[in-house]
Design a protein that fits this description.
This protein has 283 residues and is of the alpha/beta class. Helices cover 42% and strands 16% of the residues. The chain has ten helices and eleven strands. The protein has a six-stranded parallel beta sheet. Strands 3-2-4 form a three-stranded parallel beta sheet, sandwiched between helices. A two-stranded antiparallel ribbon has the order 9-10. Helix 1 packs parallel to helix 10, helix 2 packs across helix 10 and helix 6 crosses helix 10. The longest helix has 23 residues. 42% of the residues are buried.
């Protein structure tokens, strides 16, 4: 029987620790960690994420600011807001919700964020620090996955790890973190030949391609740990991951469900990064 890795329970545990650390930090310094969340346009999924992020700030004792800007906001207006937040001492973390409307240059905007306030860890400065293993912040989803593995008692060292997906947000940094934890890492993608033959080698399989129920039991090594990063909606409206849970779960030693696996950890690690940014601001 596979262990179901309960992201909700682990996330709640980590948030309790963050809240305690935040109180101790604020009592000592008089500083309340502050997060600013910026959203442009009216994408419903993004609005849900933003609400959840602001709610999480309240749970752990942070100060938060939210900016909901109209779809027609210009690049100059958005950059001016980022400049203002960079200069605001009450704000330690700046998060611009992606994707942005097509007329805006997301890359240019992310470069504008002060790396010390880049709590998503998307700025090239922070990406470079992750590459060399000397980082302040980690991208929230990969960091959350490492926390899930650690708190579930799973070691990465010496394991064959396969990451399917090569995005800058999940796939690439995930591979780096597994490598730094002494895993032997293979990164697969849409051009990988005979994908199933590679995924069947994995002791730890991270599925992050955004295709509903793509990974089936015949693609998974018996006893593997399967981490499902996908969040897809079926035709019937139900959420599902990239892994066909019903067929894969009996084959695994441990697996994350969707929802309730990786998702809750992502916002929790954002809180952890924001606290770290506040702590670093006084060092």
């Amino acid at each position: 029987m596979a262990m179901i890795i309960d992201g909700k329970a682990i996330s709640a545990q980590v948030r309790t620790e963050i809240a305690a650390d935040t109180k101790a930090f604020s009592d000592r310094t008089g500083i309340v960690p502050g997060l600013a969340v910026v959203i442009v346009g009216n994408d419903p999924a993004s609005q849900v994420y933003v609400r959840n992020k602001r709610r999480a700030c309240g749970e752990v004792g942070f100060y938060s600011e939210g900016y909901e800007l109209p779809e027609e906001t210009t690049q100059d207006e958005l950059e001016a807001l980022v400049d203002k937040l960079n200069a605001n001492p009450k704000i330690h973390g700046i998060l611009v919700q992606l994707p942005l409307p097509k007329h805006l240059d997301a890359e240019k905007l992310l470069l504008r964020i002060d790396p010390k306030k880049d709590v998503d860890a998307f700025h090239p400065y922070n990406v470079g620090r992750i590459m060399i293993g000397n980082y302040a912040f980690l991208p929230c989803t990969p960091a959350g996955i490492m926390e899930l593995l650690r708190r579930s008692g799973m070691t990465v060292e010496g394991k064959e790890c396969v990451v399917v997906g090569r995005s800058n947000i999940v796939g690439k940094p995930m591979a780096m973190l597994l490598l730094q934890a002494n895993g032997t890492v293979t990164v697969c993608h849409s051009r990988t030949k005979d994908l199933a033959s590679v995924t069947r080698r994995a002791d730890i399989l991270v599925a992050a391609i955004g295709k509903a129920d793509f990974f089936t039991a015949d693609m998974v090594k018996p006893g593997a740990v399967v981490i499902d990063v996908g969040m897809n909606r079926r035709a019937d409206g139900k959420l599902t991951g990239d892994v066909d849970f019903a067929s894969v779960e009996p084959v695994t030693s441990a697996i994350t469900p969707v929802p309730g696996g990786v998702g809750p950890m992502t916002i929790t690690m954002l809180m952890k990064n924001t606290l770290r940014a506040a702590q670093d601001s006084v060092n």
